[in-house]
TrEMBL record:
InterPro entries: LytR/CpsA/Psr_CW_biosynth, LytR_CpsA_psr. PANTHER family: POLYISOPRENYL-TEICHOIC ACID--PEPTIDOGLYCAN TEICHOIC ACID TRANSFERASE TAGU (PTHR33392:SF6). Belongs to the LytR/CpsA/Psr (LCP) family. Keywords: Membrane, Transmembrane, Transmembrane helix. This is Cell envelope-related transcriptional attenuator. Residues 76-233 form the Cell envelope-related transcriptional attenuator domain. The chain crosses the membrane at residues 9-31.
Length: 320
């Protein structure tokens, strides 16, 4: 099953959460359990366990992570998101960067941020986002979206309140969305339907309250889904499935995050509160602009002043 990744920035949060929290919580849990089970007088064993784990649970500064989603075969990056995570407080901020964001890309004639990966891979993406947002980025994660269904199914799906009857058919994209209104369990395929929904084939009052056809409305719905997904999946019962979950994730994952790095970031993961995640969409406006040989194109033009305020408050990091 080939999944169109164009607006699926939400999957990146699933990846970072799984990679950081499921692997990290598991090892930290093992460490804490081992310490509790050691006799207080048996300091040698206690010191041994501590010394083995100590090097990987000491990260203390907020870190910026660039999350990229696309199709490896097509070598594209249709989704980008910047995450700032504080491993001490477990505060998390997420900024979605629209794929049509207008910015000069070294090596590309088309000034849209989604061309950065095509011309220079993850390094060019990092360089471009650092320039756009004036931030330092330590880690990147690139995920091929074709394993999204498997990841969600491995995590038992998501209980979610679908706000309206969602019916949409696009034979060209082989996209068919049919979800009933109400609280229900969404498996991988149904989750994709919800997260791809932007408008109905036949509009109804419930749909019009939430969706007007804009991608920004869909991004807001996806952010709400992210928070609920993380709230449900921060559960110790998933530790027993760490291997299958991580294997599913790593199958199409390209990252400079090591296992030890993930654990450093997840030392206080049990305190993580999904409902306190701060979510943002890069401030700006949609505009039609004439672009050389391409003619008039649709762009997303960032508002630099508003962006700087958000960056200074929520995405500062001294880790290069």
């Amino acid at each position: 099953m080939i999944i169109n990744s164009r607006k699926f920035y939400f999957i990146l949060t699933i990846i970072i959460t799984s990679f950081l929290f499921f692997s990290g919580i598991g090892l930290v849990y093992v460490y804490e359990t081992s310490i509790k089970n050691i006799n207080k007088n048996d300091f040698k064993k206690k010191d041994l366990v501590y010394n083995l784990v100590k090097p990987i649970i000491q990260e203390s500064q907020p870190v910026n992570i660039l999350l990229i989603g696309g199709d490896k075969v097509a070598k594209n990056a249709d989704t980008m998101m910047l995450i700032n995570f504080n491993p001490i407080t477990t505060d998390m901020s997420i900024m979605s960067i629209p794929r049509d964001t207008r910015i000069h890309i070294k090596g590309s004639n088309l000034p849209k941020i989604n061309t950065a990966y095509q011309v220079g891979g993850s390094d060019r993406c990092i360089e471009t986002v650092c320039s756009l947002l004036n931030v330092k980025i330590k880690y990147y994660i690139y995920i091929d979206v074709n394993n999204l269904v498997e990841i969600i199914d491995n995590l038992d799906g998501v209980y979610y309140n679908v706000p309206a009857n969602m019916d949409y058919d696009d034979p060209v994209q082989n996209l068919h969305i049919h979800l009933k209104k109400g609280y229900q369990l969404l498996d991988g395929k149904k989750s994709i339907q919800f997260l791809r929904f932007r408008k109905a084939s036949k509009s109804n009052r419930d749909v019009r309250k939430i969706y007007n056809g804009s991608d920004l409305n869909r991004e807001q719905a996806q952010q709400n889904f992210i928070k609920e997904f993380l709230r449900q999946k921060k559960d110790m019962k998933y530790i027993g499935r760490i291997n299958s979950i991580i294997n599913s994730i790593l199958e199409n994952l390209d990252t400079n995050v090591t296992v030890s790095g993930a654990i450093k970031l997840s030392q206080n993961a049990p305190n993580f509160k999904a409902n306190e995640i701060k979510t943002f969409i890069l401030p700006g406006n949609e505009a039609s602009i004439k672009e050389g040989k391409y003619g008039v194109l649709s762009f997303y033009v960032p508002n630099i002043n508003d962006t700087s305020k958000i960056i200074n408050e929520h995405f500062k990091s001294d880790l290069p």
